[in-house]
């Protein structure tokens, strides 16, 4: 029996999200393998590669992109570098998984999507949470009418990193701030669950002089058709939360750990209708591995991706409106 071919990955950079979560997820997946890692210095690349059991190390991103044996690259670089290195990876013929937010604005995202299309490569934004099968379960419950008509969604993603030194999230020119970093999750989730795009955004934010004038806290309202409002909090100077609630006319869906999934029973969610509250059991899995396998099925088997590059562009348009609203203190129509 011949072994099924695996997608061969190169990693551009040694960011903590790559080391802690994405690389182990790819390594635990069924259809992928990590074969190379590049950093700005060879010493760092070699040490990280050794620590993670990666065969090859490169002292520059250019060298990794020149490696013909690599099929796909993961880009966990600071936000302002996503645009440049996605374009360069597409030109090199590599499929691309780019960390969120995919770009600094929708115009960049459109160029990135066009470059990937022209090169014939798959480009996806790394929203790992939506590859967990529990979101298909949640969509099915909404579609079934069990909680009635959706009246609203509330999403939170907050944590406190205000005391960290040298945090790239505090660089405004690098795409720092809570909306870029985690507000994008709430936007993505709302669009995914409602299956439509918002028509307006209103956001109030706290721009902190102590943290490079980035938004350390933001609270927003997205307006959707059928008079549905989606409210959300994103914060890097607040207590930790990552929750999602879907409110219907007859019931409520509550996801206590909506984005950072522990991969065990803590990933379960709850449905309340009347006096009945039930816990919905979900699969025990690594959602980063699920993301990698979904990506590989598109590249290796030609499966239609659940979320393509155009979805990333649409998410970026909403994020642009949220940032503009926060900066100008006004409602922005899309």
UniProtKB/TrEMBL annotation:
Positions of the GFO/IDH/MocA-like oxidoreductase domain: 135-254
Residues of the Gfo/Idh/MocA-like oxidoreductase N-terminal domain: 7-124
Keywords: Oxidoreductase
Pfam families: GFO_IDH_MocA, GFO_IDH_MocA_C3
InterPro entries with a match to the protein in the record: Gfo/Idh/MocA-like_OxRdtase_N (IPR000683), Gfo/Idh/MocA_domain (IPR050984), GFO_IDH_MocA-like_dom (IPR055170), NAD(P)-bd_dom_sf (IPR036291)
Domain of life: Bacteria
Gene3D superfamilies xrefs: Dihydrodipicolinate Reductase, domain 2, NAD(P)-binding Rossmann-like Domain
Membership in a protein family: Belongs to the Gfo/Idh/MocA family.
Protein name: Dehydrogenase
Source species: Paenibacillus hunanensis
């Amino acid at each position: 029996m011949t072994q099924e071919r695996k997608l061969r990955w190169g990693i551009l950079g040694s960011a903590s999200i790559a080391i802690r979560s994405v690389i182990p997820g790819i390594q635990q997946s069924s259809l992928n393998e990590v074969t190379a890692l590049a950093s700005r210095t060879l010493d760092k690349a070699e040490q990280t590669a050794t620590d993670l059991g990666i065969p090859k190390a490169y002292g520059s991103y250019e060298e990794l992109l020149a490696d013909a044996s690599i099929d796909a690259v993961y880009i966990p670089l600071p936000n302002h570098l996503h645009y440049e290195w996605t374009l360069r990876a597409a030109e090199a013929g590599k499929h691309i998984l780019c960390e969120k937010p995919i770009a600094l604005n929708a115009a960049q995202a459109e160029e990135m999507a066009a470059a990937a299309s022209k090169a014939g490569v798959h480009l996806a934004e790394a929203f790992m949470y939506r590859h967990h099968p529990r979101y298909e379960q949640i969509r099915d419950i909404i579609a079934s009418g069990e909680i009635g008509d959706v009246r609203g969604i509330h999403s939170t993603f907050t944590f406190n990193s205000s005391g960290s030194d040298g945090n790239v999230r505090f660089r405004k020119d690098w795409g720092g701030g809570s909306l870029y970093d985690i507000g994008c999750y709430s936007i993505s989730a709302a669009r995914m669950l409602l299956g439509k795009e918002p028509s307006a955004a209103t956001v109030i934010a706290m721009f902190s002089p102590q943290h490079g004038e980035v938004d350390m806290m933001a609270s927003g309202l997205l307006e959707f058709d059928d008079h549905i409002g989606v409210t959300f909090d994103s914060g890097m100077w607040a207590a930790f939360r990552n929750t999602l609630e879907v409110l219907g006319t007859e019931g409520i869906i509550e996801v206590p750990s909506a984005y950072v999934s522990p991969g065990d029973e803590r990933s379960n969610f709850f449905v309340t209708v009347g006096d009945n509250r039930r816990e919905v059991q979900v699969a025990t899995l690594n959602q980063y591995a699920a993301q990698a396998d979904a990506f590989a099925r598109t590249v290796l088997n030609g499966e239609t991706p659940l979320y393509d590059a155009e979805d990333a562009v649409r998410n970026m348009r909403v994020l642009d409106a949220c940032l503009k609203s926060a900066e100008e203190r006004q409602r922005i129509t899309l």
